[in-house]
Amino acid sequence: MNPAPLSGLYAPSLSLVTDLYQLTMAYGYWKKGLQDREAVFHLYFRKPPFSGGYAVCAGLAYAADWLQNLGFSEDDITYLAGLKGSKGTPMFEQGFLDYLRDLKFTCDVDAIAEGTVVFANEPLVRVQGPLIQAQLVETALLTLINFQTLIATKTARIREAAGSDQVLEFGLRRAQGFDGGLSASRAAYLGGADATSNVLAGQRFGIPVKGTHAHSWVMSFEDEEEAFTAYAEAFPDDSVFLVDTYDTLEGVRHAIAVARQMRERGHELAGIRLDSGDLAYLSREARALLDEAGFPKTRIVASNDLDESLITSLKLQGARIDTWGVGTKLVTAYDQPALGGVYKLAALRHADDNGWDFTVKISEQLAKTSIPGILQVRRFETEKGQARADMLYNIAEPLPENLTIIDPLDPTRRRPVRSTTFRELLEPVFRQGKLIMTLPSLQESRERVQREINSLDPSIRRFLNPHTYPVGLEEGLNTFRTNLILEKRPQRPA
Ligand SMILES: Nc1ncnc2c1ncn2[C@@H]1O[C@H](COP(=O)(O)OP(=O)(O)OP(=O)(O)O)[C@@H](O)[C@H]1O
Ligand SMILES: O=P(O)(O)OC[C@H]1O[C@H](OP(=O)(O)OP(=O)(O)O)[C@H](O)[C@@H]1O
Ligand SMILES: O=C(O)c1cccnc1
Ligand SMILES: [Mg+2]
Asked: Which residue segment(s) compose the domain that 284 sits in?
């Protein structure tokens, strides 16, 4: 089946969402006649965010949409034609602009499905194709995948802390602009939020929308009871009263008084919301008041600068909170506002024959030295589907019979692979520029996240000093990489 075009649902045709240097390099390749040299790039991060043990891959749907729409419009070309260098001459010559106007995306793209748990150094996306194209897509792929992976991971952690409680994403007002809000709402739902307050995300992506009311609602009436009564008239079966505008426990009593009147009319108060003060103490007191008054099913919603560590702490304190409203700290990934994903060249086709040159970027720190090859990620699992270790290997080289994986940061850490159950994480998404994968629905990707996280050992899921999940280079790849580093690095006499 041919997947339906995404037609701009996520990322409309915005091919100038790029850094200028992608275009200057493209021009340079074109002038040198190198534009069609076949190249392979990998997109990966070097450290999971939030000092955590894993990340949740997200953003592929946006990326696929953007790639599908890649192409320079007449307006784009006109703008580029007007760019000048420091001497006032045009930056790009006409022949190149004509080339760009006709450029069609023809690369192969393999990627790890959204919602999969991923680790440091694993290519989330592999792009193979003409050098000029594979290079041009760097910035947009990083923009889309870094942010959404970050937010999906943050939400997965919040979900972990909240257990089976409801999690509502309330972040739009604190998001990094409209798109920051929209893509954060999508990534948050994917990562485990149950609903969003963001109505556009509801319309666009089918995410359930939910909410309560603001303090201003209460302040617009003579008193709290009147405000609650009026809200209940509008939403007799879906009212959650914000009780902390004046005095929280008084507010709970007023909510109960209105809930009694609602019950007489055949309606139940859905919940109350606490938005300030000691949420552990107040939720316990509120629960006791509601239970005593005969409203054990009325839920307690809490909000106020929450994140996974506060939720964990509140639970340890015996808070009686059923629903967590999380905004600022989720959509801004407050404690780590960017994922440092990178996009590195890993292979170039020989100019003379059909072989490959595998390439490496060397750094003072081994952690920042890239991995050469055309990489695939193989995840070894137990019979029951528990993830045991991941192996990066070069698909352009044959694999030996007996596999050993080697820690890319410490070659003395080696593990023979015993497990025979595995899956290959990178899947074909584009072939010769055509989208060939039927992308899973947001709902399917969301379900995948919970399956994937359950496949991890608790030592990797914990927040504090998590165990490092084993990710190794296949022995042959490790040897090749070491030799390549030795060959490229100047050996300066001591
Ligand atoms: N029991 C608790 N343990 C730890 N942190 C808590 C507890 N209860 C609330 N918090 C958190 O402490 C912070 C308190 O915020 P802050 O000092 O601004 O007071 P506030 O309750 O929001 O006051 P305001 O009335 O001004 O809204 C919030 O992030 C809240 O989530
Ligand atoms: O706290 P967050 O996780 O960002 O969740 C969203 C917050 O937004 C709303 O109030 P807002 O912050 O606008 O005002 P307030 O803090 O004065 O209630 C809401 O009452 C939450 O507190
Ligand atoms: O519906 C809510 O309670 C809500 C929505 C956005 C931000 N804070 C709260
Ligand atoms: Mg606030």
From this structure: 152-331
